[in-house]
Structures are given as C-alpha cells and as structure tokens.
Amino acid sequence: MPAACESVLEDIEDIVSAEDLKPHDRQFVRKNVFPKVRKRNSQKNVQTDDEPPSDSIIPGVQKIWIRTWGCSHNNSDGEYMAGQLAAYGYKITDNSAEADLWLLNSCTVKNPAEDHFRNSIKKAQEEKKKVVLAGCVPQAQPRQEYLKGLSIIGVQQIDRVVEVVEETIKGHSVRLLGQKKDNGKRLGGARLDLPKIRKNPLIEIISINTGCLNACTYCKTKHARGDLASYPIEELVDRAKQSFQEGVCEIWLTSEDTGAYGRDIGTDLPTLLWKLVEVIPEGAMLRLGMTNPPYILEHLEEMAKILNHPRVYAFLHIPVQSASDSVLMDMKREYCVADFKQVVDFLKEKVPGITIATDIICGFPGETDEDFQETMKLVELYRFPSLFINQFYPRPGTPAAKMPQVPAAVKKQRTKDLSQLFHSYNPYDHKVGERQRVLVTEESFDSNYYVAHNPFYEQVLVPKDPLLMGKMVEVNIYEAGKHFMKGQPVSDARVHTASISRPLAKGEVSGLTEEFRRSPQNGTNWKAQPSAEIPVKTRLSSWMALQLPWQQEGDGLKILSVSLALLAVLVMFYYGGMKTEL
C-alpha cells in the first residue's frame, strides 16, 4: 500500500473536537458535532419555497439513494450506513430520481473511479439533491475544490452517518473525519454489531482490519485508511455467528491486507481463521480476501491446512503487480518475484486445485520493455484463472505521480498485450464432465442463471430454480467458458441448507441489537423496516424521541411554555365560569 500521508491529514478533522467517544459509548451520540450553516438568501428573513426553515424539517422521513464504488471493504461500509439510516426511519431507495439525498461512497484506487464519483456529485447538484460524501476520496483529500461545502463522513466514522445525514437535510455542512481510538490506540473502525442492510442477504462481508503496514508508492488508499488496525478475534467471531443466525451462507473476509491481520494486537490470521471455522455451519462457506506476499510467507503451512478445510474456499487473492524486481522496488512492495513464486508453488502443491488470483499494473513509472516481458512470462507460466489487469494511473499526492511516466500509448499497448495473453487460454475446459459441489448465492447479470461457486471459488452457472438459492448442491459440469462453467443439478444428490434460520428479506435491516432497539435515541422497542412505509404519526412521535440532546432541550422549553400557557387559559376559563354562576 502507499506512501506517507500528505500534510493535510494531520488536521483533517476540521470541525470536530479532538475528544472522541469510545466505540461502545457512541451509538448515535451527537457530541462534538458542529455544523457549518450554509448562507441563506441575502434578503433579510426571506426563506425560499423550496428550502423550508431547518427547524421545520422532520428528520427520518426522507428517501436516500446510496451509491458505492470500489472494494468489498467499501461495500461493507455502504451496507452498514444503509442499515443505520433505515433503522432510524429513512427509506433506502434504488431510484436516484426520487431520493431526497444521495450518499456517495467513493473509491480512490483509480482515476476512473474518482471521475465517476466527481460526476455523480455534479449530477446531484444539478438535480438539487442533498449530498453526503463517504469513502476514501474525501477522507484522503477533503479540501479538494469540488468537495467544498459538502458534508463528509469519514471511513472510521460510519457509525455516525445518521447525524451527518440529518444535519445535511437541514441545510448544514458537517464533516466527521477523525480516527477511532481507545486509550490512545487506533481502532479498526466502527463497531461490527451496527445495523446493516446486506446487498445480498446470503453474503456477509466482514472487515477484519483496516489500513496496512506497507507504503506502496502508487497507492492512495493508505492516505484514507491509514496504518493497520485490527478488530479483536472475539468480535469477529460474534459477527460471524450473528450472520449465520440471520440466514447467511457465505462470509467474505475483507481488508486492505488480510495477511497482516493481528500484527498490531498480538495475534495473526491463522489464529483468527481457526476460530472462525469452528462456527461455520454445514452448507456454509468462508472466502478469504486479498493478502500481500510478505505477510503470508511466514504462515504458509497453517494457511495450507486452513485452505484445505471443507468449509473454506481453496481460493487466495495475492497481488504480484509486476514480475520485475526493479519495478517492485520502485513500488516499495517489500517482496521480490521469488517470494511470490514461493507462495504460489507451495499452495499449489499443498492445496490441490487451489485458485490463485492476482493483480498486475501495466506501465508503472520506469517499467522497461524487458520488465514487462518478465510479467508476460509469469502469466504464461501460471495461467492465472483470475487476473486483474490495471493500466497505471498516477494518483495525486503519491510518490509514483512524481516519477517519470511511461508514455500513455505504451501503457495502453502493454495493457492490451497482457489482456490478449490472458484471453488466449481457457482455464476450465478440462473440468467439463466433472461432478462438483457448489453453493448457490446470486443471480447472473443477465438474469438467465443463478450463480454458484465450487470449492475453489470458480463460478458455476446453474438453472434458475428458486429452490436452489442459498443451498449447496451437486452438479454435473457440461460447458465451460473463460470465466465460468455451467452445471446441471444431480437429481439424486443431497441438498445442504447452511442455516436453520430463514435469510433476511432483501432490504431488511440486520443486526438490530437489544441495545440499539431500547436506546433512548430510538424510543422504547422501536424498530423500523426500510422497505415499509412508516405512518406519519409514528414518524413524528419517533422523531421526538430521536432528537439531539441540544435539540431536545430547546424543544422541551417550547413544549413546556405552550403547556403552561394552555394550563393558564384553562384555569382562567374555569374560574371565570365559577364567577358567572355566582
């Protein structure tokens, strides 16, 4: 991962006090939020028709559209933000046009992803939508010109998204960009038991740590996610248990570098994985996320045993980025090509059939034709079934952006050449005729098939039979393509159901703990379903219970004043009536 943070990161928490609450004390607590009030109409005491006074807006009744770019870690953050907002009473919508507010969750890995993010901001402003920004782009560079005046929720502050959305809807600009700490030690981020809405109710994405130990010269993500901070094992195991109780049948472990897990808290990845496999029910599977070569080298023996476990996919994503040691040195990747080969060769020997996925950057600054040919030879040698090919984009603020650049035409040609090599072989042809066990979890993009994965996390398309969804079944492979196989379920085979619990409905809020349901901010035993319309009367009463402390004080005084005035009128009316009778 990338180089040292820019100086702007030393004071990025513009309007929040350095005093921050501990993770278990801050469920929707509004302490230390100082909104920046936008300037209103220059005419004195004039309020435009389309912007009512902020104190007349009822929070928790608006529709919110959430768009997420990037990795599975970012997708998990998006799910958590959606869950909290829905639990509060907001309606999460798939229709951006009908939404009152757009929550844009960004990715900073590549220029095109940030371009899409920037264009979405512009479109939202053109359509007069309220906007809240999240993800790695505003966290890394909150003072970019196109972010001015907009609300931002930091990557470690997603548990406070309701506050930011509420203030934004009122017309304020709020920025929460601080780090979570406990006794001065940086934490992995927001607590794992927050409400969330899974994009796929059958798949739980668990972030085991945030940040990394590297300083890769091309990477912008480090500027946002920072140094390594791991979640405790017991919290991760509890989250997995809860997920299975909610009908989940597949867990993805994610982070910027799963292999580095635990180094900051005195443990390691194999220790975590052995604890997790103990709670995986029959018919469910665990998928590991990306790990860099240096941190997996010392755990090869244990990792091989874990990847051979029947409830763990024999799959590992190990980015090589280049097969040239000189390029790797310029990237500050902290390993050489021989290290990568050692990892791959060992796992291929000890875990028969394992799928190794990797990443390659084409046209990194200083890459020669000879360097690139070494990379081509590596791909030819291993014929990776899953290969992520990336043309180099210089990210602002990274050391690589200041290096002499490879001409754009050369980068483009190298990307094309590597892509042609990758598409010259078919990794699954030899598997036609096999009988495989697969777990069905998704629908294909063209909606013609269900998507399943075999024990090596290879994609298998199966017929769209609703009885198969969420089940582990056996299929006969009858066709193979570049990225998939097709399988026909075996009629006499046993079907495994991963959990006795029914999966949550799509859009249903997960993880509503008793603490959350009974907290003063949420009223007594109050629970919102994101897909259900909440009556206005209920929303109004819920809103009264969901006020900020300083809002409650002001409204309480108003209510008390009105109550006393009404009481006075009643007393006068009563005594006036008595005098009339006398």
From TrEMBL:
<dbReference type="InterPro" id="IPR038135">
    <property type="entry name" value="Methylthiotransferase_N_sf"/>
</dbReference>
<keyword id="KW-1133">Transmembrane helix</keyword>
<feature type="domain" description="TRAM">
    <location>
        <begin position="429"/>
        <end position="491"/>
    </location>
</feature>
<dbReference type="Pfam" id="PF01938">
    <property type="entry name" value="TRAM"/>
</dbReference>
<feature type="domain" description="MTTase N-terminal">
    <location>
        <begin position="62"/>
        <end position="170"/>
    </location>
</feature>
<comment type="function">
    <text>Catalyzes the methylthiolation of N6-threonylcarbamoyladenosine (t(6)A), leading to the formation of 2-methylthio-N6-threonylcarbamoyladenosine (ms(2)t(6)A) at position 37 in tRNAs that read codons beginning with adenine.</text>
</comment>
<keyword id="KW-0479">Metal-binding</keyword>
<dbReference type="InterPro" id="IPR005839">
    <property type="entry name" value="Methylthiotransferase"/>
</dbReference>
<keyword id="KW-0819">tRNA processing</keyword>
<feature type="transmembrane region" description="Helical">
    <location>
        <begin position="556"/>
        <end position="576"/>
    </location>
</feature>
<dbReference type="InterPro" id="IPR023404">
    <property type="entry name" value="rSAM_horseshoe"/>
</dbReference>
<keyword id="KW-0411">Iron-sulfur</keyword>
<feature type="domain" description="Radical SAM core">
    <location>
        <begin position="198"/>
        <end position="429"/>
    </location>
</feature>
<dbReference type="InterPro" id="IPR002792">
    <property type="entry name" value="TRAM_dom"/>
</dbReference>
<dbReference type="Pfam" id="PF00919">
    <property type="entry name" value="UPF0004"/>
</dbReference>
<dbReference type="GO" id="GO:0035598">
    <property type="term" value="F:tRNA (N(6)-L-threonylcarbamoyladenosine(37)-C(2))-methylthiotransferase activity"/>
</dbReference>
<dbReference type="InterPro" id="IPR020612">
    <property type="entry name" value="Methylthiotransferase_CS"/>
</dbReference>
<dbReference type="InterPro" id="IPR006466">
    <property type="entry name" value="MiaB-like_arc_euk"/>
</dbReference>
<comment type="similarity">
    <text>Belongs to the methylthiotransferase family. CDKAL1 subfamily.</text>
</comment>
<dbReference type="GO" id="GO:0046872">
    <property type="term" value="F:metal ion binding"/>
</dbReference>
<dbReference type="InterPro" id="IPR006638">
    <property type="entry name" value="Elp3/MiaA/NifB-like_rSAM"/>
</dbReference>
<keyword id="KW-0808">Transferase</keyword>
<dbReference type="GO" id="GO:0005789">
    <property type="term" value="C:endoplasmic reticulum membrane"/>
</dbReference>
<keyword id="KW-0004">4Fe-4S</keyword>
<keyword id="KW-0812">Transmembrane</keyword>
<keyword id="KW-0472">Membrane</keyword>
<dbReference type="GO" id="GO:0051539">
    <property type="term" value="F:4 iron, 4 sulfur cluster binding"/>
</dbReference>
<keyword id="KW-0949">S-adenosyl-L-methionine</keyword>
<protein>
    <recommendedName>
        <fullName>tRNA-t(6)A37 methylthiotransferase</fullName>
        <ecNumber>2.8.4.5</ecNumber>
    </recommendedName>
</protein>
<keyword id="KW-0256">Endoplasmic reticulum</keyword>
<dbReference type="InterPro" id="IPR007197">
    <property type="entry name" value="rSAM"/>
</dbReference>
<dbReference type="Pfam" id="PF04055">
    <property type="entry name" value="Radical_SAM"/>
</dbReference>
<dbReference type="InterPro" id="IPR058240">
    <property type="entry name" value="rSAM_sf"/>
</dbReference>
<keyword id="KW-0408">Iron</keyword>
<dbReference type="InterPro" id="IPR013848">
    <property type="entry name" value="Methylthiotransferase_N"/>
</dbReference>
